[in-house]
Design goal:
About 30% of the residues lie in helices and about 35% in strands. By secondary structure, it is an alpha+beta fold.
Length: about 260
């Protein structure tokens, strides 16, 4: 699939994914709009009743545009989904536009839609489907979509990263069970070349904070998009020092993500 990530003027993120299918538009249209077909590639039962769309889980949606067999647009809670089917020789181009607010969750959405599109293609072809490794696919999309983040704003460094494992697994990987107030933080919570002072706060499975070089360093595990936790790492202090340490924190975050996803070389 061809993937593209952009940001609207209102700050919402837009993910576009395109795939060529060797089937005519009418056949593809039935596969993305008729429940008996949708159940073969979408992870829940989708139904359409008038302009109301239900998905079997999460919030309901509303049809916002319907032009068979070319455009099917609808909401899913606060998200917007737009399916377009374009003729292409003896086949079709299927384009999905997904608009949402959680920019750092884009890789989770992209890997999920990638799997759905592969299952859809298998259903249209009449062949079996084997689901790809989810964690590895997620990490591939982190790179494809340029989601390795990290910013320094005034006196605060921030790295936010969607992970592929739940918070309890992340905490164990970070050796959080050995964190003690007043003691140095466990080594996995530190980065090369960054001063690590005594632990000032611990909430098992959720948060660890310790003194840094002129400020504080805080690891927080929050609810994420998909099946994994969201890591939010912040460090406060002198802006010049923070900018100098940003590469180390990016590297440490990516090393952790690779370990959790099983992609560490």
């Amino acid at each position: 699939m061809n993937e593209h990530l952009s940001t609207r003027p209102d700050g919402r993120t837009v993910l576009r994914m395109r795939r060529r299918l060797p089937h005519p538009p009418a056949k593809v249209w039935r596969a993305i709009t008729e429940p008996d077909h949708v159940k073969h590639w979408f992870p829940a039962e989708m139904t359409i009743d008038g302009d109301r769309v239900t998905y079997g889980f999460g919030p309901d949606g509303r049809v916002t545009e319907l032009r068979p067999p070319h455009v099917f647009a609808h909401t899913w809670g606060e998200d917007e989904l737009r399916w377009e089917v374009h003729p292409d020789g003896d086949g079709s181009i299927l384009e999905l536009t997904h608009t949402f607010g959680d920019h750092h969750g884009a890789a989770s959405f992209a890997s999920g839609w990638h799997t759905c599109a592969a299952a859809l293609a298998a259903h249209l072809d009449g062949r079996p489907f084997t689901e790809p490794p989810t964690a590895r696919l997620h990490e591939d999309y982190i790179a494809i979509l340029g989601l390795i983040s990290g910013t320094v704003d005034d006196d605060t460094l921030r790295v936010e990263r969607q992970l592929t494992r739940p918070a309890a697994d992340v905490w164990n990987t970070l050796d959080g069970g050995h964190a003690q107030l007043g003691a140095p933080p466990p080594a996995p919570f530190t980065a090369e070349g960054v001063h690590a002072g005594p632990v000032a706060r611990v909430e098992p499975g959720k948060l660890l904070e310790y003194a840094g070089d002129g400020g504080t360093i805080r690891w927080e595990l929050a609810e994420g998009t998909g099946h994994g936790a969201r890591l939010i790492l912040t460090s406060t202090g002198d802006p010049a020092t923070l900018r100098a340490t940003l590469p180390a924190w990016r590297a440490r975050t990516e090393d952790l993500a690779a370990t959790l996803a099983g992609t560490q070389p």
